[in-house]
Design a protein that fits this description.
The chain is an alpha/beta fold. The protein has nine helices and ten strands. The structure holds zinc ion. The site of zinc ion (ZN) has 5 residues, from loops.
Length: about 240
């Protein structure tokens, strides 16, 4: 079974969607000891894991990217394309200063630059430690009325490919919400479509064409995710989803 883990913030006030930098350091050290980290599509073994970080907050570049280099790990970064600016010289402290709910308010993403920039994304991709996925254009709920699915799913891919000069092969569903039309379009344009759901995956084909992710935010200990009890729960959920699919 292939585990794919979903994380969001580091050191955010939004505690259910965050880990502290010291917890992430200890957690990633443990992962480096036990697992080989993969990008979507890479050959897996019994000791493989895929790490994914949603929303491309600047805290990823500031805290996680150095840890990926320190422990020689790979991670997939899900980027909401419309929020990404080209570059900035703004002080990191200012970029990290917003509360979670302020990040998406008004033009705060332009004033405080709380997301990674394209310069930072290119640097991380070129290091070999980070792969970029589309996380839609505007980070909207794809099942909301009036959502332009083509713009969110295909437009975001084209923009990221143009800005980064590389193929984007993964789409991470915002809020884990979707309908048939969204999935058909996403599967047409991406080999890998990821959601939430706290299940494991038999392979990169996922279950019913969707790759499930387990929740890695709000870790209580560095090995919270890997206790027998947790793992049994994930495994059981996987079996139920396989039977239903
Ligand atoms: Zn998101």
């Amino acid at each position: 079974m292939l585990p794919v883990v979903m994380y969001h913030h580091i050191n955010s006030d939004d505690l259910p969607l965050s880990n502290t930098d010291t917890m992430m350091d200890a957690h990633l050290r443990l992962i480096a000891q036990r697992y080989t980290t993969l990008f979507p599509g890479e050959t897996s073994s019994s000791a493989s894991i895929c790490l994914t970080f949603d929303d491309a907050y600047f805290d990823f570049y500031h805290y996680v990217f150095p840890l990926l280099q320190k422990y020689n790990l790979k991670a997939l970064l899900a980027v909401p394309a419309a929020y990404i600016l080209d570059e900035t010289n703004l002080d990191p402290e200012i970029r990290l200063s917003l509360k979670h709910h302020e990040i998406y308010e008004g033009e705060n993403y332009k004033t405080y630059i709380p997301f990674c920039t394209y310069v930072e994304l290119r640097e991380m991709v070129q290091s070999g430690h980070v792969m970029v996925a589309s996380h839609s254009m505007n980070h909207v709920n794809l099942i909301d009325e009036g959502t332009n699915l083509r713009e969110e799913i295909v437009g975001s891919k084209l923009l990221l490919e143009e800005k980064l000069g590389m193929r984007i092969t993964s789409f991470v569903l915002p809020f884990g919400k979707y309908n048939d039309a969204a999935i058909v379009l996403a599967r047409e344009h991406y080999p890998y479509v990821l959601r939430i759901g706290n299940a494991l995956n038999p392979s990169w084909n996922g279950i019913g064409g969707l790759i499930y992710r387990i929740k890695g935010d709000a870790l209580k200990t560095p090995d919270t995710l890997f206790t027998f009890r947790k793992w049994f729960g994930f495994w059981l959920k996987t079996m139920i989803k396989l039977v239903k699919s």
